[in-house]
Design a protein that fits this description.
The chain has 296 residues and is mainly α. It has twelve helices and no strands. The longest helix is centred in the first third of the chain and has 34 residues.
Amino acid sequence: MGLSEDPELQPLLFGLFLFMYLVAILGNLLIILAVGSDSHLHNPMYYFLLCNLSFVDICFISTTVPKMIVDIQAHNRVISLGGCLTQMSFLILFGCMDGMLLAAMAYDRFVAICHPLHYSVIRNPCLCRFLVLVSFFISLLDSQLHNLIVLQLTCFKDVNISNFFCDPSQLLHLACSDTFTNNIVMYLVGALSGFFPVSGIFFSYYKIVSSILRVPSSGGKYKAFSTCGSHLSVVCLFYGTGIGVYLGSALLPSPRNGVVASIMYTVVTPMLNPFIYSLQNRDINSALWRLHSRAV
């Protein structure tokens, strides 16, 4: 399991992934600290959803990159079956929860723009806690279903995974027995777990766009759209790279193409999310400056 066998590339890969991991951890921690320390951001969108999204991103990238960094340094690319299943479970858990939280954030924007007078009533703290808990339990169910499918495999024809983490589709490709039914079930479970949040996001933005188009002034339209810019950018990055991983494994025979798509999905996305929110969102940007001024 790994990226490259070339010994000359190992120091470069070690430094690159260590840098990206530290940037992702620091960026997401800063978002959590900025929101937690600024009373202006203690609302459902930031305090419950964005903080949880940043925490999930930290967990998401921590399921793969630390082990890969240690393996590069120790020149050891071995992982046990139990370790592989554990890594796969947490990867699917946090990846699915990312998508669920993004759907909840899209619903928050829908309520804020289409029903602004009822926002505080509809988006109360109890509902936000409920949405976070539902996201967690659905993601946990999804990860355990994937685990059960892989556990049905009795033997493997190869022990080499052409990726830097344990991907369920890769494990099915290594199985000795016929995995057609398991493949169908796995992709069906993955499609269902992705279908509901994507449908929620599309429905929310359909209503948002319809509502904004009825605003008479161009300034009002711009102001309404600007509140959705950072969230929409994160959604496109997350689902764009996620679709790239699945299409890459299904359509492209080259393992290198699949690895590049996987890096974009599991490493680059959690690293860029804090920058997207801090650069495109004035509230987060102001909170970060206030946090910096207090620290100085």
